[in-house]
Amino acid sequence: MPGDTALLDCLPHDWRTGLFLGRIQTNAGPSPILVSQGIVYDMSAIAPTSAQLVEKLPFVAATDGEKIGDLDAIEAALLSPVDLQCVKACGVTFALSALERVIEERARGDAGAAAEIRGRLEERVGGSIRAVVPGTEEAAALKAALIEDGLWSQYLEVAIGPDAEVFTKAPVLATVGPMAEIGIRSDSTWNNPEPEVVLLVNADGQAVGATLGNDVNLRDFEGRSALLLGKAKDNNASCSLGPLVRLFDGDFTIDDVRNAEVGLTIEGPEGYMLEGTSRMDQISRDPLELVRQTLSEHQYPDGFALFLGTLFAPVQDRDEEGRGFTHKVGDIVAISTPRLGKLINPVVTSKDAAPWTFGLAALMTNLAGRGLLSAVDQKETA
Questions:
Q1: Among 333, 290, 103, which residue's Cα sits nearest to residue 201?
Q2: How many secondary structure helices (H) and strands (E) does the chain include?
Q3: Taking Cα atoms as reference points, which of 179, 83, 116, 80 lies closest to residue 372?
Q4: What are the Fumarylacetoacetase-like C-terminal domain coordinates in residue numbering (predicted)?
Q5: How far, in Å, CA of 286 to CA of 272, rounded?
Q6: Could you tell me the pTM of the whole model?
Q7: Is the distance from CB of 284 to CB of 93 less than 8 angstroms?
Q8: Nearest 10 degrees: CA dihedral of 326, 327, 332, 335?
Q9: Which residues contact 269 (CB under 8 A, 6 or more apart)?
């Protein structure tokens, strides 16, 4: 754990009353868990993966699993809460995010040129882009005006046009969990965290819960070309999730996601401090609309995790005036909101982060060796 932070300090304020899904590393291998009334239950004998457990949620209770104990027992073993689910992300879902992406594009990844461009664009489109609803006649009129002014951008297209940006953030099993190191490319000189709420969606396309995520972003790479999005977004240890997925119930619903305020703090090794907030009620597209667009003409038989985007775009100078923010190795990033808890990760380069070696073949081999795959098959065919 970074510093003196304990797992209980990272849980929602009402963690004793919620129902949570997660994964832990046991001596035998990774296992899905449910946490109910603060008690942890190993669910691997019922559903050996997080993805399978999600599909069984309507039919099983936490107490059907093997009781492990209280949350202190899993503090050092907590993994990313997803395994077989695809990890998808939506970009440019907030007005300010759209402006920052246009700035990246026009500055060609040069942080020093960004300040002047930022001021000019905000003066021209700041108010109108915040008020327009994507895909409407008003949005089309704004697009026409911006094209006429020579200010149109592919990023504004997904900000106010009919189609949301949806991309694949990380391969299956490549996400890291709370307290794990997150990575930035060693050759990036302008980058930042992206604090986001992440929906967990089942195979039927229903959002079943939410967690926190860090969609680490390389602004210099994407700014040079949108075709570098893959390099900007998908690198070793560049996607963190956790600490647990809070499952929707009568007390925690999609409206809690819609109204969440997501806080971000970055503590640098040199004493630097940055704080910010992303308000989900400022999102341009409803979270369930983003789910719908992700499912458009595509299926996800193991479900998916969906990053909803962020309002936060750090522009506070760190080292020199006009250069804005970029990460340093040793930064501690904390993303939080009261009903989902706090996700903390220290920053390293992707080269120095723990290598990703446990893939699908390794997981299937592990589960088969534990007799879990055959047990599940027998139960499902009985």
A1: 290
A2: 11, 17
A3: 83
A4: 164-348
A5: 35
A6: 0.90
A7: yes
A8: 50
A9: 328, 329, 330, 331
